[in-house]
Every structure is written in structure tokens, then in C-alpha cells.
Specification:
It is built from 11 helices and 16 strands. The strands form 4 sheets. Strands 3-4-5-6-9-10-11-12-13-14 form a 10-stranded mixed β-sheet. Strands 1-2 form a two-stranded parallel ribbon. The protein is α/β, with parallel strands linked by helices. The longest helix has 19 residues, at 132-150. It starts with a strand and ends in an 11-residue tail after the last strand. It folds into 2 domains: 4-62, DNA polymerase, domain 1; 67-355, Alpha-Beta Barrel (TIM Barrel), CATH 3.20.20. Helix 7 (203-212) runs parallel beside helix 9. The protein has helices spanning 11-20, 25-37, 51-57, 120-124, 132-150, 172-183, 203-212, 226-232, 241-252, 274-284, 310-322; strands spanning 4-5, 61-62, 67-73, 79-86, 89-98, 101-105, 109-111, 126-129, 159-162, 195-199, 216-220, 260-266, 290-296, 326-329, 347-349, 355-357. It binds S-adenosyl-L-homocysteine and iron/sulfur cluster. Residues 118-119, 163, 167, 198-200, 220, 263, 265, 295, 297-298, 341-342, 360-362 line the site of S-adenosyl-L-homocysteine. S-adenosyl-L-homocysteine binds at residues 118-119, 163, 167, 198-200, 220, 263, 265, 295, 297-298, 341-342, 360-362.
């Protein structure tokens, strides 16, 4: 008999599981609160849970977190964890504290199949999807670890962004229960506005998310026209910009915020010219309610790309702002521990004992 990892079950799933064990639904709620709100992993700790249930769970189920390969804390308070997901694969999560919120950036896949040119996860290729337990384990571990560290029983993580490794909308079946657990009042109790899914533009799945669990949406645009976007984000061949923007507009009907965040990674001489800013204005102004987040590119050697100089980023931003598009330039955090966008690069050994570069991945486009 397989041991069930309870971190992989949303409240519905846990209720169904408890029913299979002959237990009432409210027991599932109690159990869920112990796991997610109190961070308990040991059934014996769950003192108000009927002893009979605790006995049934023992041996059949467990709360299995991910092994931590490394943890680094930056001078600015950013914390980065590298988690082992087996077979030489590892994924990263990053906590970014700010005065009014604490954001956790988490991963949805080991590697990524989309293969964007400027992304080291993309260069690495796709290893596998994380399951729901592995997605939630990043939040579970970070939240309870940080509470212990700060000596508080209060919630530390107020926002979650799916901006770590992987394309969350290419792992939808595992993502959806994880999002539900983040939102559940008996779980992490985050509002839909404070959970952001970032996507390179998987159009049909944007529609699914709209129907199933419309959290805040960030779309990685990176180019004002199809020709350039195809080169940067190969998925654009399948879902070109016009289709993507239509999906964004459909999403807005149900979105918790009245805008979509467009991410735009600033690449020297590639997508940062004034005429490209103007093309972006024409593409978006009056067509989609949005905010633009310009991300300074974090270089890695294999990309052959460079970050746009600061004055070009400023000039680009000012063209967008003047046209009425709300534009922010993302701050870089956690530089000293390689936790900034595109720098998440832990090193792990794969099966053949070759050191593989673990990816980058981006931080906190935490739309305010
Ligand atoms: N796959 C999803 C979510 C993870 S990537 C997506 O692409 O949206 C999150 C963000 O980080 C994306 O906007 C991505 O374009 C950006 N990013 C990737 N590599 C980067 C790099 N080297 N420097 C800066 N931003 C990067
Ligand atoms: Fe995948 Fe996002 Fe990286 Fe593109 S930017 S390769 S979609 S993780």
C-alpha cells in the first residue's frame, strides 16, 4: 500500500480521503488546519484529533516535506532555499520581505519545456512536473521555517507568486489543488489578489484558470510583435500575441484585480528600442487593462544576451508611462545570494554525477 502524502490533498481531497477511512468531514478540516496553519507533520502532535483517526493515519499517510539542499539569506532579508526533488533534480523558492508584505516565489516544474531564450531554466530543458505536494511543500516549509526564525505564530508569507522554475500552466492538474490550498481559509488563507500565476502564454489554460480559480495573472510578454516574440518565447508560434491578448481580456472578467501584469525582460539591443516601446503602447493601450513590469535581464553565459543599460530602461519606461501605461521597473533583490531574477542557480549533481546548473528564476513581480 502506498503511503499518501497529505501535503498533496486540498481540503476536498482530504475530506474524501477521511471518508474512505470512515471519518467525518470535520475531521479533515481539523487535520488540514494542523498541517497547514500549525505546520505539524507528526500525527501525535495533533492532540485534539481523535486517537482512532491518528491510529488510522499512522502507516497509511504522512506529511512529507522536501529535503532542503541549501538555504541562503541575503543582507536584504531575502531567503533562498534549494529543495531536492529526487533523481538529481532540484527546485528553488525565494522569500522576499518588504515593509508591507512577505512574498514567496515558488517553482512548478523541474526545468521547463517552453525554452525561452533569456531564461536559464528554459536552456536547461524539461525534467518533470512537480506534483501538488511538491508545490505546496515549498510554501509549507518556508512559512513555518520563517515563523520559527522570527519567533512568531503570525502568518509571515502574505503573497505567493508562481514565478520560480517552470511554466505553471503546463502543469495545471497539480497547480490547481495547490492554488486552492493557498486560498483556503483553513489553509494559508491568502486572497486571490495575493496569489499570482505567471505564464508565458498557454492560452487554453488561461481560460481554464479563469473558470476554476481566477487568481492574479502575470503574462510574460517580452516583445511587442510576433516576429520577435517567437524568437524569445517559442510558445508564441502556437499562441500568437493577438490570441494571448484576447485570452487576457476574457480573464479580466473574472480576475481579482482589474488589470493583467505584463512582464517584459529588458534585453540589450533586442527589445529595448524606443520604437519597440511605441509599438507596445499601440499594442496595449486601449486594448487590455494592464500594468507593465520591466525586468532587468539577469545574464547567464549561455544566453549570449546582455541587460539593457539603465538609461535605456528608463527611456523605455517613460515612453510607456507617458502614454498612460502604468509601468514599474522591478527592483533586484537578493543579489548577494544569486536570488535575483534569472540568477537562481543552485548546483546539484545529476545521475551521471555531472554538475548541472539549476536554473534561474525570477522574483517577485508582486503587483501592488
Ligand atoms: N514560466 C512562467 C513563470 C516563471 S518565469 C513565465 O515565463 O512567466 C517568471 C518570470 O521571470 C518571467 O517573466 C520570465 O520571463 C522572467 N525571467 C526568466 N529568466 C529571466 C532572466 N534571466 N532575467 C530576468 N527575468 C527572467
Ligand atoms: Fe519556462 Fe518561464 Fe523560463 Fe520561459 S521564462 S523557459 S516559460 S520558466
Amino acid at each position: 500500500m502506498d503511503v499518501v502524502n497529505l501535503l498533496g490533498l486540498d481540503l476536498e481531497g482530504l475530506a474524501a480521503y477521511c471518508e474512505q477511512l470512515g471519518e467525518k468531514r470535520f475531521r479533515a478540516t481539523q487535520l488540514f488546519r494542523w498541517i497547514h496553519q500549525k505546520g505539524a507533520a507528526d500525527f501525535d502532535q495533533m492532540t485534539d484529533l481523535a486517537k482512532s483517526l491518528r491510529q488510522k493515519l499512522a502507516g497509511r499517510a504522512h506529511v512529507k516535506a522536501l529535503d532542503v539542499i541549501s538555504e541562503h539569506q541575503s543582507g536584504d532579508g531575502t531567503v533562498k532555499w534549494l529543495f531536492d526533488v529526487g533523481a538529481g533534480n532540484a527546485v528553488e523558492a525565494v522569500f522576499i520581505p518588504e515593509s508591507d508584505r512577505g512574498t514567496l516565489c515558488i517553482s512548478s516544474q523541474a526545468g521547463c519545456a517552453v525554452g525561452c531564450r533569456f531564461c536559464s531554466t528554459g536552456h536547461q530543458g524539461f525534467s518533470r512536473n512537480l506534483d501538488t505536494a511538491e508545490i505546496i511543500a515549498q510554501l509549507w516549509y518556508a512559512e513555518h521555517n520563517l515563523r520559527r526564525r522570527f519567533g512568531t505564530g503570525e502568518r509571515v508569507i502574505s503573497n505567493v507568486v508562481m514565478m520560480g522554475m517552470g511554466e505553471p500552466l503546463q502543469n495545471y492538474s497539480a497547480l490547481l489543488p495547490a492554488l486552492k490550498m493557498m486560498l483556503d481559509d483553513h489553509g494559508y488563507g491568502l486572497s486571490r489578489r495575493r496569489v499570482t500565476v505567471s505564464t508565458s502564454g498557454v492560452v487554453p489554460m488561461i481560460d481554464r484558470l479563469r473558470d476554476d480559480c481566477p487568481v492574479a495573472l502575470a503574462v510574460s510578454l517580452h516583445a511587442p510583435d510576433d516576429e520577435l516574440r517567437e524568437q524569445l518565447v517559442p510558445l508564441n508560434k502556437k499562441y500568437p500575441i493577438a490570441e494571448l491578448l484576447d485570452a487576457c481580456n476574457r480573464y479580466l472578467d473574472r480576475a481579482p484585480r482589474d488589470f493583467i501584469t505584463f512582464e517584459y525582460c529588458m534585453l540589450d539591443g533586442v527589445n529595448d528600442k524606443p520604437e519597440q516601446a511605441q509599438a507596445l503602447v499601440e499594442l496595449l493601450c486601449g486594448h487590455v487593462s494592464c500594468k507593465i513590469n520591466l525586468i532587468p535581464f539577469n545574464p547567464f553565459p549561455a544566453s549570449g544576451l546582455k541587460c539593457s543599460p539603465r538609461d535605456r530602461v528608463t527611456a523605455f519606461a517613460s515612453i510607456l508611462s507617458k502614454a498612460g501605461l502604468i509601468t514599474t521597473v522591478r527592483k533586484t533583490r537578493g543579489d548577494d545570494i544569486d536570488a535575483a531574477c534569472g540568477q537562481l542557480a543552485g548546483e546539484v549533481q545529476d545521475r551521471t554525477n555531472v554538475i548541472v546548473r539549476m536554473s534561474r528564476a525570477p522574483l517577485g513581480a508582486t503587483p501592488a
